[in-house]
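Quarterly update from the structural biology core.
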Amino acid sequence: MPLLRILFYPLSLLYGTIMLCRNKLYDVGFFSSSAFNIPIISVGNLSMGGTGKTPHIEYLIRLLKPEFYIATLSRGYGRKTKDFLLADTQSTVNDIGDEPLQFKNKFPKMPVAVDEKRLRGVKRILELFPSIQSILLDDAFQHRPVKSGLSIVLTDFNKLYIDDHVVPSGTLREFPMGIKRADIIIITKCPHIPLPIERKGIVDKLKLLPHQKIFFTTICYGEFIPLNNKGIAPFSKNYYFEKNYTILIVTGIANVQPLEHYLKEKTRNIESHNFSDHHQFTQNDLKAIETKFNDISATNKIIITTEKDAMRLRDKNLSGILSNLPIFYIPIEIKFCNEDEKDFNNYILQYVRSNQKNDSVHSK
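Predicted structure, tokenized:
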């Protein structure tokens, strides 16, 4: 891997320089960036993904929804449609993508929209829902045409952006210096509650600007939920752990390691069948999974996938094969470490409360 990183370094340098020039042109006003007079919160990464955006956006939704009328706007990665599309109860993963579909399933009354052009998407949301009080932008840190009022960047505890490289040598979309545009940095997927000396070490390493705030979160895993209800008993996940079930992990996400680590702590009988991020499952994929599952010699065995993968696995074209498999998905939520939850909640709520204005748009 180090050799490949060295070989790809010139390409990484070229790509990073192009992104740096692009950002500078936005910073000096050569490219316009439009701001809206309602609070817009962007949640994104410096890396290509795998930092836990979806559960963090869901956390923000749960925090804001009781007090404000909010909407989410995503690109809709992997969808087979184009332009602006508003999700409804009949939307599929092919219409809007897996993450927006997950938002709509969990928060059916909340406007969920997709548009590869976020500026057009924001304007359309405000046209359709003039009483919207805040918009959450999904994966929009590099999308500069919209000027977010508050920008949140996530970075994995086990792979901080400062230790990574620009693609193709690494997974960064731009040089680490791009972090200066962020207002909040969240260290995600902490394997434990960081000790004060660990927190200080990370803060010192990142060299944040005076106005930037840093928080730490960890993952909380929920109960196993059947993907379909045919012949699957509703046992607690601890039942499967205590009975030493063999678990076949099937995922199509950017980083499966936290899930694998969690399950390996609970049971020793783990096998994996992983695909690329946002993988669109086919019947052949499911047949291969079925074959691997049947080849497991254990009598007690189940399949575990993620909630995001479940959105794609529920494709009606795959239901025939899936109905014969004991497959569950495991939802996740994030939890802030130590006193971070109170401070984060207060910061977000204060920002949204203090920026309730009209929905007119103006150029930077």
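The longest helix spans residues 2-27.
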